[in-house]
Specification:
This protein has one domain. The chain contains two helices and no strands. It starts with a helix and ends in a 13-residue tail after the last helix.
Length: 100
């Protein structure tokens, strides 16, 4: 029982020190700064998400149709070259220039 009595005051002193430490200006200012940093990070994350949404939808609306059209053009050129080779004429890219 004597050993328990010695421990209780020491524990009480630790809580007093912790309470004083948690009430100090440095700790309070640190908590305030951490809260402000979290708010700024939240706003930044939200605006980054909006920017990603804008970039993604712009890509879908403008770039994807362009890629599809370029693929169609390449397929048409390949088809013309195959038809020209079957007919025995040189492909348009290898044909001599017309005389002047």
């Amino acid at each position: 029982m004597a050993s328990q009595n010695r421990r209780l005051p020491a524990k009480g002193r630790d809580e007093g020190i912790l309470a004083k430490f948690s009430q100090s200006q440095i700790v309070l200012r640190g908590r305030e700064t951490a809260g402000e940093a979290a708010t700024v990070a939240k706003k930044l994350l939200r605006s980054t998400g909006r920017a990603a949404w804008i970039a993604g939808t712009t890509f879908l609306v403008l770039v994807v149709p362009l890629i599809i059209e370029m693929d169609r053009e390449a397929q048409m050129n390949e088809l013309e070259m195959q038809q020209a080779s079957l007919l025995g004429t040189p492909p348009p890219s290898l044909a001599p220039p017309p005389p002047k």
